[in-house]
Write a structure and sequence with these properties.
Largest sheet: 2 strands, antiparallel
CATH topology of the largest domain: Fumarate Reductase Cytochrome B subunit
Helix content: 55-70%
Membrane topology: Multi-pass membrane protein
Number of strands: 2
Shape: elongated
GO molecular function: electron transfer activity; formate dehydrogenase (NAD+) activity; formate dehydrogenase (quinone) activity; metal ion binding
Distance between the termini: 109 Å
Structural class: mainly alpha
Subcellular location: Cell membrane
Bound molecules: protoporphyrin IX containing FE
CATH class of the largest domain: Mainly Alpha
Main location: membrane
Cofactor: heme
Length: about 400
């Protein structure tokens, strides 16, 4: 009886004390408190794993471990060392003065890698592919936008040499940057099967060199088109009328009046400026690693507006130098995808999509009837200036 009573008390007490000591979170008793397979799988699934159970377990302060017999690190295990590197407690001394040099393991790198090769590329490809399909459908349904009226055989100067130089510097460099950027993003998948690893390495190296250096021409082009055209892209009352009928793009014979640039072109222009500045800044940050971090500050400002929270976004306000670079890379590519999709539509309308449009950027001279249909108010201004004796100024 006494024996049974003492066993009962012992069992109750041990069950109680076990319940007290049971660690929170997943049961790691099978691994003696160390990382379990489930921890690893959760991390690979991209779930947030609370690493506090091992973050401090780095062998630091364990003097006996340091004076043990197993070599220069004593009995400190590899796992201790790697945990210390991973959680930033290892005393890493590097000769490089780069801010990121002391970071040897960075967990967020895995998130970045899988986002870059996963959703970023998937949705980006949908956007570009979808835009091309939409343009093909537009072409099949609407056909080429023709000059409706009788051609006059007379031409008007639409853009002078400097305006065309600025356009082609900006647009040409953009196309080269787009092509070489896409090689960086998709090249491994499409070019290695075609040229082999050695061949791809040469292409990738050349492509990266071109991408990094053409960037300067793009930025110069951005400045030139801004200076040349900003004044013509201030919105005016005609833009609303133009937008109300979608510029007549979907209906034959409808030509809303417009000055030098119509509302659609103004939208393209401002998108080029905003996306051009954004892609240049993130590009500069990538070109000079760790020297121009921008995302921590941007996220602090963005979080203060409360908008990211409403969207369910958790933007980090503290990050390692490498994370800064990873965000710069992701942003750079996201902007590039949007920019390319817009420019696909622009190139279509500026070339095969609209009769007479390419001449504006080719020779600079457009058919007078084309100008009457697409930029009637601008044509009137040019002709009035000519009639009053002044040279037809493309700046009108
Ligand atoms: C083969 C490629 C391209 C062609 C055929 C082309 C054609 C044209 C044409 C014909 C115009 C003048 C439209 C008019 O007279 O009203 C124009 C304007 C313009 N282009 Fe391009 N372009 C090309 C590439 C680009 C690229 C890559 C960019 C920017 C990254 C760009 C940005 C602009 C801008 C901002 C304007 C002034 C606003 C506008 O007309 O929308 N172009 N382009």
């Amino acid at each position: 009886m006494r024996l049974m009573l003492s066993m009962l008390i012992f069992l109750t007490w041990s069950a109680f004390s076990w319940a007290q000591e049971a660690p929170e979170g997943p049961d790691r008793s099978a691994t003696g408190g160390a990382t379990t397979l489930e921890d690893i799988l959760a991390r690979q699934r991209g779930e947030k794993v609370d690493s506090s159970y091992r973050a401090g377990n780095t062998g630091q302060g364990n003097v006996e471990a340091l004076i043990g017999q197993l070599g220069t690190r004593g009995t400190a295990s590899d796992s201790d060392l790697y945990r210390a590197l991973r959680y930033g407690t290892a005393d890493v001394t590097v000769s490089s003065r780069s801010p990121g040099a002391g970071v040897l393991i960075q967990d967020a790198g895995m998130w970045w890698l899988s986002f870059r090769t996963g959703p970023l590329r998937t949705y980006g490809s949908y956007l570009l592919g979808g835009t091309l399909v939409a343009l093909l459908l537009f072409y099949l349904i609407r056909g080429k936008i023709r000059i409706d009226g009788e051609k006059t055989g007379r031409t008007v100067t639409r853009f002078n040499g400097f305006e065309r130089f600025g356009h082609w510097l900006f647009g040409g460099s953009f196309l080269i940057l787009g092509a070489t950027g896409l090689i960086a993003l998709y090249g491994r998948d499409f070019l290695i099967p075609l040229f082999g690893k050695q061949g791809f390495a040469t292409i990738a190296l050349a492509s990266k060199w071109i991408h990094n250096n053409i960037a300067w021409a793009f930025m110069l082009g951005l400045v030139i088109i801004t200076v040349n055209w900003v004044a013509h892209n201030i919105p005016n009352r005609h833009d609303l009328k133009w937008l109300a009928v979608a510029g007549g793009l979907f209906s034959k014979g409808l030509h809303p009046p417009a000055k030098k640039f119509n509302a659609g072109q103004k939208i393209i222009f401002w998108l080029c400026i905003i996306l051009g500045i954004s892609i240049s800044l993130s590009g500069l940050s990538l070109l000079f690693p760790f020297e121009l971090p921008m995302f921590t500050k941007t996220f602090v400002i963005a979080n203060a507006t409360g908008v990211p929270e409403l969207l369910g976004l958790n933007l980090p306000e503290q990050m390692s130098p490498h994370e800064e670079m990873q965000y710069a890379q992701i942003w750079h590519v996201m902007v590039a995808y949007g920019f390319l999709a817009i420019i696909f539509a622009h190139i279509y309308l500026g070339s095969i999509g609209m009769e007479g449009a390419f001449d504006a950027m080719g020779t600079g001279e457009v058919e007078e009837q084309w100008a009457r249909e697409h930029h009637s108010l601008w044509l009137e201004e040019v002709q009035e200036a000519e009639a009053s004796g002044g040279a037809a100024s493309p700046a009108e």
